[in-house]
UniProtKB/TrEMBL annotation:
Coiled-coil annotated spans: none
EC number assigned by the record: 7.6.2.11
Lineage of the species this protein comes from: Bacteria, Pseudomonadati, Pseudomonadota, Alphaproteobacteria, Rhodospirillales
Keywords of the record: ATP-binding, Cell membrane, Membrane, Nucleotide-binding, Translocase, Transport
Molecular function (Gene Ontology), one example: ABC-type putrescine transporter activity
Domain ABC transporter: 9-243
Keyword Nucleotide-binding part of the UniProt annotation: yes
Role played: Part of the ABC transporter complex PotABCD involved in spermidine/putrescine import. Responsible for energy coupling to the transport system.
UniProt protein name: Spermidine/putrescine import ATP-binding protein PotA
SUPFAM superfamilies according to UniProt: MOP-like, P-loop containing nucleoside triphosphate hydrolases
Similarity comment text for this entry: Belongs to the ABC transporter superfamily. Spermidine/putrescine importer (TC 3.A.1.11.1) family.
Subunit structure and binding partners: The complex is composed of two ATP-binding proteins (PotA), two transmembrane proteins (PotB and PotC) and a solute-binding protein (PotD).
Catalytic activity: ATP + H2O + polyamine-[polyamine-binding protein]Side 1 = ADP + phosphate + polyamineSide 2 + [polyamine-binding protein]Side 1
Naturally occurring in which organism (per UniProt): Pacificispira spongiicola
GO cellular component: ATP-binding cassette (ABC) transporter complex
Length: 369
């Protein structure tokens, strides 16, 4: 079977089961996903959700129990790892400590039997790409973690794979270096045009770096979309909870017209929101509101496109750029409002104060349970 060559990778109905009987683990459960050419695609999810397993199936280190994987439209079942136009950057970099930076980058090319002149040209180009020209002759045991990371990337990019797999490559770096390498990786992906499939459990990293993200849980992909799409329109409660901070509130659907539901929030207001596919058109639902979509009303007057809820301020937490107000709504539900610490903060209440909190109506998202 041949699939569309438009996608760099197509995963079709893939399952992976480890072990048997009582010790059976279904690491992937009928997963399908398409990864486009030249995109920075991230597999995001908590520990044990199946991210690494999916990466290992793409690399060919494991075989699927069921389903198919296509690369540029061609079924790669049975193709060993070294015959796939795919390379992997591992978490621990797996460099040869006794070889120099240049020799590490050259190693894979030499194994592929590339001519000497081509190898040395490519090594120079890769050194420039990762800005490591000055350290070409240094042993990799004598360079820093961030520099080792760059060498590992250069080595994996050198044979010009169609797809580069990256398994939590930044997790060993400290915060500042990790931030720097996030931008560096994005630049490398952009400059080389190679499709990157990146694995992380860090939602902020995924939002910062990715063209698109697949959110995984328990061997399933729950949602695929751009960072903004996933943040603003989480498909279900797990995604809303895993990515960013969320306020969940109970509501009842009063009526539905043209795909828009009129909801009465238990916390005491009526609001209209889009009813996602797969949600029944009556009964109780959960809605989510991001903390930054709320503000405090000085005189109790909400704007035309806002809903206003009575609340009490329980705790105030200052976090530098913002202040988090932990509120209790009249329904007894907890709600966090995040206000930026700038001059536009408007009215800022004190601890224990009774307030009206206004929420942008467009910020109220109905969730699939
Ligand atoms: P982490 O972020 O911790 O690396 P992950 O999302 O990458 O987690 P996987 O490593 O893919 O998760 O593991 C998915 C599930 O499959 C887990 O329950 C894991 O214990 C199990 N698993 C993975 N590899 C094997 C194996 N070789 N044998 C048995 N079970 C395995």
């Amino acid at each position: 079977m041949k699939q569309s060559a438009e996608n760099a990778v197509e995963v079709v109905g893939v399952s992976k089961v480890f072990g048997q009987g009582a010790s059976e683990v279904r690491a992937l459960d009928d997963v399908s996903v398409s990864i486009r050419q030249n995109e920075f695609f991230t597999l995001l999810g908590p520990s044990g959700c199946g991210k690494t397993t999916l990466l290992r199936l793409l690399a060919g280190f494991e075989q699927p129990t069921a389903g198919q994987i296509f690369l540029s439209g061609i079924d790669i079942a049975g193709l060993p790892p070294n015959k796939r136009p795919i390379n992997t950057v591992f978490q621990n970099y797996a460099l040869f400590p006794h070889l120099t930076v240049g020799q590490n980058i050259a190693f894979g090319l030499e194994m592929l039997g590339r001519p000497k002149a081509e190898v040395s040209d490519t090594v120079e180009r890769m050194l420039r790409l990762v800005r490591m020209e000055a350290l070409r002759d240094r042993k990799t045991s004598q360079i820093s973690g961030g520099q080792q990371q760059r060498v590992a990337l250069a080595r994996a990019l050198a044979p010009q794979p169609k797809v580069l797999l990256l398994d939590e490559p930044l997790s060993a770096l400290d915060y500042k270096l990790r931030k720097e390498m996030q931008l560096e990786l994005k630049r490398l992906q952009h400059e080389t045009g190679i499709t990157f499939v990146f694995v992380t459990h860090d939602q902020e990293e995924a939002l910062t770096m990715s063209d698109r993200i697949a959110v995984m849980c328990d061997g399933n992909i729950l949602q695929v979309g751009g960072p903004r799409d996933i943040y603003d329109h989480p498909a279900d409660r797990f995604v809303a909870d895993f990515i960013g901070e969320s306020n969940f509130m109970n509501a009842r659907i009063e009526s539905v017209s043209d795909g828009r539901a009129t909801l009465s929030l238990t916390a005491g207001a009526t609001v209209q929101a889009i009813l996602p596919e797969g949600v029944a058109s009556s009964g109780d639902v959960t809605v989510v509101v991001r903390p930054e979509r709320a503000r405090f009303l000085k005189d109790g007057e909400a704007g035309a496109s806002e809903v206003s809820l009575p609340a009490t301020v329980e705790t105030i937490v200052y976090v530098g750029t913002d202040t988090h107000y932990h509120l209790k709504l009249s329904s007894d539900e907890a709600f966090i409002a995040r206000v930026q610490n700038d001059d536009r903060g408007g009215f800022l209440p004190a601890q224990g104060q009774a307030v009206q909190v206004a929420i942008a109506a467009s910020a109220v998202q109905v969730l699939k349970d």
